[in-house]
Amino acid sequence: MSTSPVGPPPADGLVSAARRNLRELAHGLSHASHPPTPLLAGAPKRWQRLLPYGVVLALTAIFLPVTITVLTTQYGMPGALAGALGAAQAAPLLMLAHRPLQAWWIIFPADVVGALALLAQPAGPHDAWPWTPPALIACLFLLLALGLRETRRTVIGVWAVTSAGGVALHLIAPGRGDGSVLLLAILGAVVLVIGAAVRERGEATRRLAEQETISEAERARRTLLEERTRIARELHDVVAHHMSVITVQADSAPYRISGLPPAAQEEFTAIATAARESLSEMRRLLSVLRSDGGEGDRAPQPGLDRLQQLVEATVRAGLPAELSLAAELGEVPSAVDLSAYRIVQEALANVVRHAPGARTRVSVRASRGHLNVLVVNGPAARPGSPLETSGTGHGLVGMRERVRLTGGTLDTGPLPDGGFRVAARLPLSPAQGAP
Known about the structure:
This protein is α+β, with helices and mostly antiparallel strands. About 60% of the residues lie in helices and about 10% in strands.
């Protein structure tokens, strides 16, 4: 198979590309790439937000009289003309904080007009032309503001137009001046590079902060979903136990109760069948929730009857803890029983991680139809030696989800002495729980 040699691109392609780039450059020079918001408008402190205004006021206050004085004394320009040119070249510096590109469109033509007006004055041996010293320095500040706000294409276009304007003026009077055209071109390029580097670094930092915020939100959302999935897996065992009891009772009712009519026997059989189907559906749901593909823990879910063992294990681990468990709690729903145990377990784990050696008190009481769970710890026995200096918040997320599941309330927060308090109030009546 023959292949045609790759030749240079067609001329019409180069022309169209050049036209497209010129259009983009013209658009960049005529349209600012940012809204007219001041520089540092999003700074957290007020003095930082006011700093750009102070800088432009100072620049204007300096360059306005200096430009007029230089034009009248050094170049011998009439006062009225010098005042008009000085105002046109220096007053737009007030726009550097929020509209630097528009300021350039005023200052650059004013500098060109000023250079042409100086041709009518006799040239001194050390006079800078076409850019006077104040105009050159003010232009550098202008280019710095542009580099901090505008895109790379725009700042390159500004530099190219400014340099080309200087070259054109130099060609008009080649024997006049001392190289200010080359000086502005070199220093302007350096200033634009510095401004663009600072701007791009600021944008990179801002994007990184936004990405970290998004990542943190995603981590919090993933943590919440993981906690909800874990709670759902645990509650499955509780509900499955009740469903199994219903199935056994419905199946054994005809044998335990004599003299049941056929309609009642059929009703018990239907109840048992529905219970088995519901249990199968729950098992299929659990297989979806188990993302790790494991079979899960087949041991019974813990409850308040195992709080004493939990506290004793915590004491053996080196944490002085005591349990105050009411002798009569009444009938505690399975979901509340499991949630209360998990809340105490997570609270004690947090004490071990963040306040090792702190004396901790666990209290479980029933009052007015609610189960009150309280875990209070003092300050760490060994200050400055926590196992974790910053928590992930996963434990508190799990506590809140368990409390929300049962329709209760949770109150957590630090204590004045440096300790921490976890207080949960869980309803004992299913009618008071969450729907």
